[in-house]
Design brief:
It is a single chain. The chain is built from six helices and eight strands, in the order βααβαβαβαβαβββ. Helix 2 packs parallel to helix 5 and helix 3 crosses helix 4. The chain is α/β, with parallel strands linked by helices. It folds into two domains: 123 residues, Lumazine/riboflavin synthase (Rossmann fold, 3-Layer(aba) Sandwich); 49 residues, no CATH class. It is elongated, with a radius of gyration of 24 Å. The strands form three sheets. A four-stranded parallel beta sheet has the order 2-1-3-4, with helices on both faces. The protein has a two-stranded parallel sheet with strand order 5-6. A two-stranded antiparallel sheet has the order 7-8. The chain binds iron/sulfur cluster.
Length: 192
Amino acid sequence: MKIGVYVCHCGSNIAGRVDVAEVAEWVSGLPHVAVTRDYEFMCSSLGQEMIKDDIRDLGVDRVVVACCTPRMHEPTFQRAVSEAGLNPYYFEQANIREQCSWVHQDRDEATLKAKALVGAAVSRVRHHQPLSVNTVSIHPATLVVGAGITGIQAALELADADYPVYLVEREPSIGGRMAQLDETFPTLDCSA
Ligand code: SF4
């Protein structure tokens, strides 16, 4: 197993608070870590190429990127890993921006926490298994159980999206608890 670890500066977003070079140096001593790099903007095309080159040239077979939230760039890096011929699920992301540099003031402590987050990601990626994405056909009709406010709203949104909807309610009328209220704050409108 050869793990590649890439620590992102994000300009000063991360590097302004975390000693990224020190994190990369520390990570290089962990088991199975074959290559560590720190780079200004890992999501840039040059950053992605760096990962791809290491997969092709150095035989890296697990990838950890320490950067921002997976909600932002997990698909970016999974695509890059996949384009280099590695299963995209051999990738793990450590969030050292939102969960570390952005929420801490002390540089030494933020660097210590970044090491912990990246170390955990390295430990985790060792246990990753290759996965594949399956596509299955679904029946487009939708059953919504409960015709309170949430059920009614869900049914309306599904219907607006052109799906057939069956809205089921055990009581004689719809509206749930909301329909039992007289006036509602702050406009004192009749809730019904
Ligand atoms: S990968 Fe995330 S943390 Fe790194 S430069 Fe891009 S947005 Fe910033």
